[in-house]
């Protein structure tokens, strides 16, 4: 077993399936099964979910909305996705808790760090909703900060159809090669677009590994927790 506690970052897009927008129940059920299979390997799992399948703050601000308001709408989208994942996981009889960074106590617990840790210790899958609760941030940064807060050893960055980090865009450049391992410094220097720079810097400064892998390949989430997945590991903090 490679890791004891992991933080899985799921983009909103991952939940949309073929339709590329909204929530596809079949896709969510499939992801939930994969998460349970990974958990059954004996690892504690926290999840940060994005909201891009429903709403992105940037799109709203391009339409002339105030950025902060548009971002709050994005955070609400992540809560909807969180509820969908929670529902799918509980159908499979695992205990979960949805913790929201914006208080909405009828549907989610408020985010309290110690409580999140306690849930993980008890074997519950913890889902972090509403990002960081602040506009101008992303759910990638949320993943980095929450991983640091709950002491996760790695962020499992589940990508849709991309199996790691490449030297160039493999669709445009046939000579592009996949890195098995690179450092955060390389990511920053080469300006590789994996996460936003705030997220990368947080991971780097707090020594959290990042594992980028393709979640379209069945069984990859479980392989990622045991360190057997084909993908790229980014590490080498301070
Ligand atoms: N967001 C935010 N603060 C946060 C996290 C998210 O304002 O801490 C908003 C932001 O508008 C973002 C949206 O929520 O566009 C959805 O999150 P994101 O784009 O990161 O989701 P993903 O790309 O992973 O689906």
Structural write-up:
The protein is of the alpha/beta class. It has one domain (5-235): Acetylglutamate kinase-like (Carbamate kinase). Helices cover 37% and strands 20% of the residues. It has 8 helices and 11 strands. The protein has helices at residues 25-39, 57-62, 67-91, 113-121, 139-149, 184-189, 197-205, 220-225, and strands at residues 5-10, 44-49, 96-100, 109-110, 125-129, 154-159, 165-166, 178-179, 181-183, 209-214, 231-235. The strands form 2 sheets. Strands 4-3-5-2-1-6-10-11-9 form a 9-stranded mixed sheet, with helices on both faces. The chain has a two-stranded antiparallel sheet with strand order 7-8. It is globular, with a radius of gyration of 17 Å. 46% of the residues are buried. Bound molecules: uridine-5'-diphosphate.
Biggest sheet descriptor: 9 strands, mixed
3D shape: globular
Distance between the termini: 25 Å
Number of helices: 8
How much strand? 15-25%
User: What is the share of helical residues?
Assistant: 25-40%
CATH C-level class is Alpha Beta
Succession of helices and strands? EHEHHEEHEHEEEEHHEHE
Low-pLDDT stretches are none
